[in-house]
Amino acid sequence: MIQTDQEERTAGPLVREITTTDTHPHDAVVANDLVKAFGGGSQRIFRRAKPAKKDQVMAVDHVSMRIARNEIYGVLGANGSGKSTLIRLLSTLLLPDSGTVGIFGYDVVRDERIVKRMLNRVSVEASFFKKLSPFENLMYATRLYGLTGASARREIPIALGRLGIAPDRMHRPLEQMSRGMQQKVAIARAFLTAPVFLLLDEPTTGLDPRSKVDVQEFVLQLRREHDATVLLTTHDMAEADALCDRIAILDRGRVVVEGTPEELKAQAASHDIPEPTMEDAFMVFTGRSLEEAEQDEEPAAR
Amino acid sequence: MGYGGELASPRKGKFTVAVFNPPGIAREVRASYAFVERNMNLVKRYWGWEIAFFLYTISSSLSVIYIGEAQDPARRGELVLTLGIGTLVWAYLRSVFDSISEMISWERWEGTIEYTFMAPISRLTHMLGTALFSIVYGILRTAALFVALALFVDLDLSRANFLAALVVTLVGSLSFLGIGIMASILPLWFTERGAEMTFMISAILLLISGVYYPISVLPDWLEPLARLSPATYFLDGIRRTVISGQGLAQLGDVLLPLLVMGVLSIPLGVWVFLRVETYAKRTGRLKRNG
Question: What is the rounded CA–CA span in Å between residue A218 and residue B131?
Fold first, then answer.
């Protein structure tokens, strides 16, 4: 059914082909030397801030990356390593201090409105109006993305149904649902807006194993059916290994290594650990385990 | 630093991406309605709070109106009507002002603020939708309040010009939308207690605008401030249409200032809001907290 709706969108008046031009036509995302720091004294509203460098927390430190179209690109890092800041920079919610980000050739700052139409995000918190039902929340979200009321009323039950949410649950307040179910509604929200670039910020953190698998399957489905490019941040090394085409490990705001899961594990292999897991690879490249890294990282403002 | 770099370099490749929802007026109108529908659903879901706050408004309004009832019988009727209009108009203006100024604080509290700001809509669309809801909701709530108050006190409306009162209400609402938009920057700017800071603005307007007493009783230095408050003209206009039955032709000295204030305050509010939004994006203040 969703396929039908997608066809309708592709053929119907809601869709416009946006022609993008870039030096690298197969790149969905190009980030160049991206920097974002927080803190450092008062920041003025009506003039660009120049905070004192000594007090700043460097959240994203000269990060460059390329994500190919239809790729699932993983970003691994401890809490406070800069993953969420990076996602906010890519999703127009933060302005970079310096550097550029292009999404399908459009600059996230200069071409903000066009970029917004291409992306959506699923974050670790489901982020809904908790008293409203899944249906009411999704009506709101889809109208913001230009869907008509009639189309939304038709597509929302289909999308929720595919995620295992029964019709009688669609009209009850979201606060009565488990976290796993709420996260599925968040996935449905992203799916309904048909993003060509999807940002997943720890979407499976705190979910039970079954919900985790459901969400992972849906990510793959989204890529397959919507030709979506996905950036996924996660703490779950096995999940990254299974889902991602390529992975970057972020430590203290910097990309310390990038490659396919197999490449990273091969690079991390040693005499002591001839067949390392992604967890082992993480330790090799950051010098710490995930738990140790999380204890070391500055938690504020990242 | 600019945003040139690789994206600004000579372009060689070319491919297309099918993007859902192209921009356009119809899409923006639909998006505006999203805020109306969402807020209606929130009113429906928080019905307990709505009833409690409505009862509070009735009680506080009657507490003021009964001051009039206690006065000399010769002046009682007019005084009750004057105070009654004060409570009704103030309830309406507070409702409009709160709906707009809560635009940010509510979303921050729910944790949806980043999703709304990430949506491909103009901020004007966002504000228009919120404003439309606030006016419709404010008018309906005030009408219900009027009916409730009429059960307790005799409000003499025999000379009222309702059409002129409606025009004053709609024109007067414009400037309150502008002030509400400006007030809504406070929760964006001060992430912890910004919502509470908006009370300061409504408290000052209540003090200086002649809601329950003529502005002539204010100290000399406060009177000029009263003349800058749109609520002063709003109340004056409503009292003249309802108590004296004046028509639009006699209300130029009320409608013109209200119109000018509305026309100036809305773009000014939007401009200030956009500046603070940029600031919030620079400093990471859009994030959920609480």
Answer: 37
Please say whether the beta carbons of B244 and B158 come within 8 A. Answer: no
Hey, are the CB atoms on B5 and A100 less than 8 Å from each other? yes
Give the pLDDT mean for A15-19. 44
- Residue B28 predicted with pLDDT over 90: no
Alpha helix stretches (DSSP H) within chain B: 5-8, 25-45, 47-69, 73-110, 113-118, 123-150, 162-183, 185-189, 194-208, 223-228, 230-242, 252-283
The pTM of this model reads 0.84
A28's enclosing H/E stretch is strand A27-39
* CB–CB contact B120 A113 (8 Å): yes
Q: What ipTM did this prediction achieve?
A: 0.84
Residue type, A254: R
Nearest residue, CB atoms, A24 vs list B13, B41, B282 = B13
* C-alpha–C-alpha distance, residues B25 and B15, integer Å: 27
Residue to test with chain A: of B115, B117, B188, B286, most A Cβ within 10 A: B115
Phi-psi region of A127 (alpha: psi -120 to 50; beta: other; left: phi over 0): left
SS3 label, residue A103 = strand
The torsion of the CA quartet B173, B33, B17, A109, rounded to 10 degrees, works out to 30
Q: Output the average pLDDT for chain A.
A: 84
- Beta-carbon neighbour count of residue A11 at 10 Å? 9
Give dist(CA B255, CA B166) in Å, integer.
12
- What is the rounded distance in angstroms from the CA atom of residue A225 to the CA atom of residue A142? 19
Closest chain A C-alpha to B30 CA, distance in angstroms: 6
With 60 as the cut, is the pLDDT of residue B155 above it?
A: yes
Residue A296's pLDDT is: 61
**Local structure of residue B11 (DSSP, 8 states):** P
Residues B121, A189: Cα–Cα separation, whole Å: 17
Residue closest to B10 by CA, chosen among A19, A23, A106:
A23
CB nearest A125 (choices: B1, B118, B288): B288
Residue with tokens 């917004």: A116
Helix orientation angle between B230-242 and B162-183, rounded to the nearest 10 degrees: 160
- B37-61: average pLDDT: 95
What is the distance between the alpha carbons of residues B79 and B82, in angstroms, rounded to a whole number?
5
A61: closest CA of chain B, how far (Å): 15
If DSSP codes are grouped into helix, strand and coil, which group holds residue B218? coil
Per the model's pLDDT, the better-predicted residue between A52 and A11 turns out to be A52
Q: Following CA atoms A178, A184, A186, A191 in sequence, which dihedral angle do they give, to the nearest 10 degrees?
A: -170
Contacts of B37 (CB under 8 A, 6+ apart): A139, A140, A143
Q: What is A128-141 written as a DSSP string? A: --TTS-HHHHHHHH
Q: In Å, how far are A142, A239, A301 from A88, measured between CA atoms?
A: 21, 22, 12
Report the distance separating Cα A292 and Cα A287, nearest Å: 9
Distance CA B148, CA B205 (A): 25
